[in-house]
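Human: I would love a firmer grasp of how sequence relates to backbone shape in proteins. Take your time, and here it is.
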Amino acid sequence: MTRIGIYGGTFSPPHNGHVAAAKAFMEQMWLDFLFVIPAAVPPHKEMESPVSAADRFRMAQLAFSGMEGVYVSDMEIRRGGKSYTVDTLRELSGEDRRLFLLCGTDMMLTLDEWREADEIFRLCYPVYVRREKDPLLDGVIVKKIAFFQHTYGKIVRKIQTEPFVVSSHEIRKKIEAGESVEDLIPPLVAQYISDNHLYGSKERS
């Protein structure tokens, strides 16, 4: 049985937290392969930046380059429209495959609200990574995971890694303001943003 991880998102831009989460996901779920899949149009949030899907895809390729077993796929971009996870899972599923879906805390807590949630839980094993250090969420998470287990018969597991508390939104704001983000994003991504004047980086001196 081939163990395949799925890590979706807007990746605008991909940052060091994304890379660290992917590495921990690979190691702790004993994955044979990991598909990093930039969304065409995320169904759960508005796209805040004018950066193209092609640019987001290329930045993801650069961010995860050199990681053995990690493949950046444009399957959702090619599909077009809103990128529903259940469609991606169907496309990647197979009798000889076991799929694992990585979510951030916020997305994990709303899994039951996603399109065809019962099918998502049937097709994969969801896991989550904490992106915050809010202790008030601890009890909420435990309760929700118990609900998922009772409702769908699947245990949602946690990836152990240090939370990366800076979001892509905050990184975009820093770039627009001309602040350094060299310690927040991979060097190749930083160079690509600068070379292509993304997120207002053309205003930087």
